[in-house]
Amino acid sequence: MPGPTRARALGLVLVLGLWTARPAAARPESSSATVCSVAGLPGLATQYARAVRESRAFRDWHGPPIVADRGDLAAGPAGDFWRVAGAILGASGEVIVAAADVTPFQAVGAPSRHGPPCDRGVRARDAVAWSMGLGGYSAQEIADVLAGHLTRVDLDDARARLMAGQPRTAVVAFLEARWREPRAPALAAGRHGSASDPLRTLAHLEADLLTLSARHGVAPDLVRAVIAAESAGNPGAVSSAGAIGLMQLMPATAASLGVDPWRPVENLAGGIAYLSSLLRAYGGNARLALIAYNAGPQHANRVRDGSAVAYRETRRYLDAIDARYPLY
Predict the structure, then answer these.
(1) How many domains does the chain fold into?
(2) 230 among known catalytic residues
(3) Which of 169, 178, 183, 213 could form a disulfide linkage to 220, CB 3.0–4.6 angstroms apart?
């Protein structure tokens, strides 16, 4: 290398070395490097693409899409997408919903100043979601692994046991034994008070419940059982996954249905419409429809296909409904 050229190269190396040696806090970064967007997180982008694909295949399940020119997500796929988005982004997910960032109803490419920083933890969780997404795991399974309730090894062992012909009850017992509780209980008080008797809470909504149930062809007693199991009749209930209100609608699911989940009547309307669409999609099989309602259509499809079982909260949820409304 000629002398002057070599000198310039060494100078450039020195400048770059000093730049990279600067503390991270002092180094200016572009918003695209520090603020989350779907396009910047491969795991989340994969789940978004999956939701779009599933919406195109099953859009007649759920009625109108969220926004036709922004992904065209149906209620079930939108909810599954949000399960993973919330698990990857943690507490920042609430900010994203409020700001319409990294959710189905925004253009997915550009980050926003309202979005959370894509720190090392977010990127690590996204990498797990990306790997599990390639492996065909459901959004609920990915969220449970990211929350620390189960490991991927646990789910692989459960799948192997199913493939080996073990009874589903034995596989459920296995996952029950492996379950961990690293986080707070699922239900917390929302912005409309604490849990109360579901029948008393619903007394003023009874006329709406009967009208909406008749309109969508869902048994009123089933709706009451779902409300009792999902939220204990608390219109302000918020789950650790971000589901809201009486019928525990995921924010993206509520958006796709065109309802405000914080308004009890709208929450009821959206939940009944969604449940009705799931009952139709699963040919009237109430257990599968309820698994889809509680854990997402991806998980219900895996249960139907024999590659997964309903476990922990979903199993307890089914038992709670069966006690009020027998599932045959």
Answers:
(1) 3
(2) yes
(3) 213
